[in-house]
């Protein structure tokens, strides 16, 4: 278990709730990139797979929490796109 890996995941993890709240309240995707979010999600999945296959420890839970938060942000991206499309009709 690496202290630096834990610190990295905690720092990234602290940013996701802010992004989620902003996406939820704004109801639009200004400045958001779903491609970026998907790339980040794939990175977290890769970390989870690495922990499962090579180096299982409790840090896997930080990867899981972060992946869930990114998934929520991706879901909000599509919700906001639907809201924007409906408003323009």
Keywords for this structure?
Monooxygenase; 3 helices; 89 residues; mainly alpha
Summarize the topology.
Blueprint: H1 3-26, H2 34-53, H3 60-87
Helix pairs in contact: 1-3, 2-3
What does this structure look like?
The protein is mostly helical. The protein has one domain: Monooxygenase, CATH 1.20.1280. Helices cover 81% and strands 0% of the residues. The protein has three helices and no strands. Helix 2 packs antiparallel against helix 3. The termini are far apart. The mean pLDDT is 96.
**Total domain modules:** 1
The CATH architecture would be Up-down Bundle
Q: Report the biggest beta sheet as strand number plus sense, adding barrel if it closes.
A: none
List the secondary-structure elements in sequence, H or E. Answer: HHH
- Overall outline: elongated
Distance between the termini: 52 Å
A few lines on this structure:
This protein has helices spanning 3-26, 34-53, 60-87. It is mainly α and 89 residues long.
């Amino acid at each position: 278990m690496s202290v630096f890996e834990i610190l990295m995941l905690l720092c990234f993890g602290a940013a996701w709730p802010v992004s989620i709240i902003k996406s939820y309240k704004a109801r639009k995707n200004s400045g958001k990139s779903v491609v970026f979010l998907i790339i980040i999600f794939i990175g977290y999945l890769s970390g989870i797979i690495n922990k499962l296959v090579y180096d299982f420890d409790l840090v896997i839970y930080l990867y899981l929490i972060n992946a869930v938060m990114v998934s929520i942000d991706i879901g909000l991206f599509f919700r906001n796109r639907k809201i924007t499309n409906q408003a323009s009709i």
